[in-house]
Design a protein that fits this description.
The protein is built from 7 helices and no strands. By secondary structure, it is mainly alpha-helical. It has 2 domains: about 1-25; about 30-125, Cytochrome Bc1 Complex, Chain D, domain 2 (Orthogonal Bundle). α3 crosses α7 and α6 (about 90-95) crosses α7 (about 110-125). The chain starts with a helix and ends in a 13-residue tail after the last helix. The structure holds heme C. Heme C (HEC) binds near residues 63 and 76. Heme C binds next to α4, α5 and α6.
């Protein structure tokens, strides 16, 4: 009897976490085509690219994400587990397409090498602290 109750509780917990996964998946991440996810960053780990990406970040991204990339005014931190878990290809897709309805512009006007440099820079950042107490939209 005890085991079957444990089993039920486990099942209920499992379905709750499955449901929250579905919610999380309504994000831009779920829109990225499989082929894009697997694209590799030709500039990965290259110090010159990281330095160039840092300048591009200051110029284009810091006003929303903060110069420490920790997020501002409901704009997400880019030093999160979530960004760390995203593939380079997924980030490249987001920079090309944006997430317009949620306020992330498209960066397709930047040449593709610059977008990869930005991603190399993001990868060079350490994970940030606990999420700031700002509400996400
Ligand atoms: C006008 C404000 C704004 C600017 C400028 C901006 N972003 Fe964003 N960014 C956002 C918002 C808002 C989101 C959340 C989008 C969403 O949840 O779909 C976001 C999301 C992201 C994400 C995904 C984070 C996550 O957890 O899903 C990345 C990566 C990102 N931005 C990188 C950049 C980079 C790199 C630049 C500069 C080239 C940039 N952003 C410029 C507003 C901005």
């Amino acid at each position: 009897m005890r085991t079957s109750r444990t089993l039920w509780i486990a099942l209920i917990l499992l379905s709750i976490s499955a449901a929250s996964l579905v919610v999380a998946d309504s994000s831009w991440l779920s829109k990225v085509p499989q082929a894009d996810r697997q694209r590799a960053n030709p500039y990965a780990d290259q110090p010159e690219a990281i330095a160039a990406g840092k300048l591009l970040f200051e110029e284009n991204c810091a006003k929303c994400h903060g110069s420490d990339a920790e997020g501002r005014h409901g704009r997400p931190s880019l030093r999160s587990e979530r960004v760390a878990r995203a593939t380079d290809g997924e980030l490249a897709w987001l920079l090309r397409n944006g997430s317009l309805r949620k306020g992330m512009p498209t960066w397709s006007s930047l040449p593709e090498p610059e977008r990869w440099q930005l991603i190399a820079f993001l990868r060079s950042l350490p994970l940030g602290g606990p999420p700031a107490a700002v509400s996400r939209p």
